[in-house]
Amino acid sequence: MIAVARRAWHRVKQPFAGDPSKRLHGRIAREFLRGSGLEVGALHNPLPVPTAATVKYVDRMSKPDLLKHYPDLGDKNLVEVDVIDDGETLRTVADASQDFLIANHFLEHTQDPIGTLGRFFAVLKPGGVLYMALPDKRFTFDKPRAVTPLRHLWDDHAHGPERSRRQHFEEYAAAVHSLTDPAEVAKHADHYMNADYSIHFHVWDQPAMLELLLAVRPKFGFDIPLMRAHAHEVIFVLTKAEPDA
Predict the structure, then answer these.
(1) What is the pLDDT of residues 85-122, one digit of tens each?
(2) Which of 96, 130, 185, 231 could bond 238 through an S-S bridge, CB–CB 3.0 to 4.6 Å?
(3) 178 shares a domain with 128
(4) How many CB atoms are closer than 10 A to CB 100?
C-alpha cells in the first residue's frame, strides 16, 4: 500500500499558518473586500475578511464528505460549506453576481487555469475583486518540477486538460516522494489518480505567474492593483474592468 504524503491533501492550505501572514492578508482584505462574495476551497484556512464583507464558502463536497475523502484533514477545523460546486467552473453561480471572489492556493489545483480565471471574472460584478494567492514553487515541495509553460496552459484551455492529466500526476508523485524509478512514479501516480486527489496540476514561480496574468488580461479585462510576494506565496488582487461609459 502506498502511504499518502501528508502534503498531498485536497489542497495544501498554509497561507495563514503564522501570525505575520494572517495580519498581512487581513490588511489587504480590509482594503479591498466589500459587499458579498465567495471563497473557493477555504478548508481550514479561510481568509480573514472585514466586517464590510459577507462570504459564503464553496467546495466540491460538503464538510462531512471532505473529512471522509481526505482523512488527513481530520484534525483541522474546516469551514462549513455553503455552496457545493466545482470551484473550477462555478456552474451554480450566476454571472455578474459577486462583489468579490477569494481563491487562495487554488488555481494551481485546477486543470484548466485559464478557463477557471475566465469563469472567476464572469461571476464577478464590474469592478469586482478577485483575491488570489499562489504558491511560488521555488519554496514548496514542487521545487524539483519545471515551471508550467504558458503554451501548455493555452493548449489545455483550447483542447482540454485530459491529454496532459497523467503527466501532471506523475510529476507531482515524483516531486512529493522524491522518486526517480519510473515504475514507482507510475505506481504513485495511479494511486493519486484513483483517489481523485486534487494535486498541484500546474506550478509557477513569480515571473511565470505574471506572464500568465498579463497574457489573459486582454481576454478577461482586469487590472492588477496589488501584487505582494510573501514567504512561500504571491498575493494578487485583481479587479474586473468596468464597462466603457
Answers:
(1) 999 999 999 999 999 999 999 999 999 999 999 999 99
(2) 130
(3) no
(4) 27
